[in-house]
Amino acid sequence: MTLENTLVKESKNEAEELESVSEKPLENDVREKRPKTPPLPKGTQTLEHQVAGHRHGKSKTKLGFLQNTDGTVLKAIQSPPRGMRELQFYQNVFDENQTNSALISLRQFMPKYLGTYSSPELPNVMYLVMEKVTQPFAEPCVCDLKMGARTHDPEATPAKIAREKAKYPFLENVGFQFQGYSVYDQVKKKYDIYDKKFGRSLTEVEVLTKGFAAFFDNGYGIRVDAVKAMIKKLEEIEKWFMSPSGLCFYASSLLLVYDGERTSTGKTDEEVSDGIDYIKETDCACTPEVAGCVNHCQLAMDLECPVAVKMIDFAHVFPASGLDENYLTGLRSLIAYLHRVLEL
């Protein structure tokens, strides 16, 4: 049975059903200290290019992100209340009858929500189904940033607050923290991958040098085109947050993606290494008669680099009055850091 045939449409009873099926013990699973890794649902595999978040077979529940052959991503819904909160948030934002203009506008900054799914192999597990953000990119370079100078939500206990603050001592000054990133090195023809532990080791200065400067370096230099395109996308999100939405996003992340196969000049890596000074016809913005010119075409240089910037992780979204100053603090700090990357 394929995902296409078993995709569960949202219903009024879906949230209630979740309480009885989400992340309950698997059949014949006695919940040992180290639960066995569950089988992969048919037609799925572990999510490629994942840099943070729960991983199949490695998280406490052994459940994690998966990808399906149809190009969608499956996220195992967490136990209540977090899982239900995230599910209901996605359902609310993407409700076809939604009339709230702020939520309708928010859709463009989120992975598209496609419903829920449970498989015959894991009938007690329900997954969120969403678009795969990295799908359009040949060599996706991915960065996961947890946003905000505060990552604990209003329901956090004093112990939880203390644990969150201890995770990253520079958080209040930086306003966000690296959860992990991967960058494609065109010289070495391989990915360099950095995890959450690395991200939490970065000082305020190293966030710039070992963080963003490294993330945007393809082996030949910093991808200025990708940085500029990211800033533009982030400023659009900032504009959304400047209008009251009635929501606050705690421990929510931003996923940054650009294509490591493309260079900032429009040349391939072979053309760069050979010293050939021309722009490929497919990258040139001139008319067909001029395309293939040997000189740098300024119009081609100005072509916007394809990037993706998506808000993810909504298990800690709460109602609020006024602006989400916590998220805005992190967002503005992030934009400022990227401007500093352009000055390097």
UniProtKB/TrEMBL annotation:
Residues 1-59 are annotated as: Disordered. It catalyses: 1D-myo-inositol 1,4,5-trisphosphate + 2 ATP = 1D-myo-inositol 1,3,4,5,6-pentakisphosphate + 2 ADP + 2 H(+); 1D-myo-inositol 1,3,4,6-tetrakisphosphate + ATP = 1D-myo-inositol 1,3,4,5,6-pentakisphosphate + ADP + H(+). Keywords: ATP-binding, Kinase, Nucleotide-binding, Transferase. It comes from the Eukaryota. Residues 7-32 have a biased composition (Basic and acidic residues). GO terms for biological process: inositol phosphate biosynthetic process. Its EC number is 2.7.-.-. One of its GO terms (molecular function) is inositol-1,4,5-trisphosphate 3-kinase activity. One of its GO terms (cellular component) is nucleus. Signal peptide: none annotated. InterPro entries: IPK, IPK_sf. Belongs to the inositol phosphokinase (IPK) family. This is Kinase. It comes from Lingula anatina. The lineage of its organism: Eukaryota, Metazoa, Spiralia, Lophotrochozoa, Brachiopoda. The gene is LOC106156040.
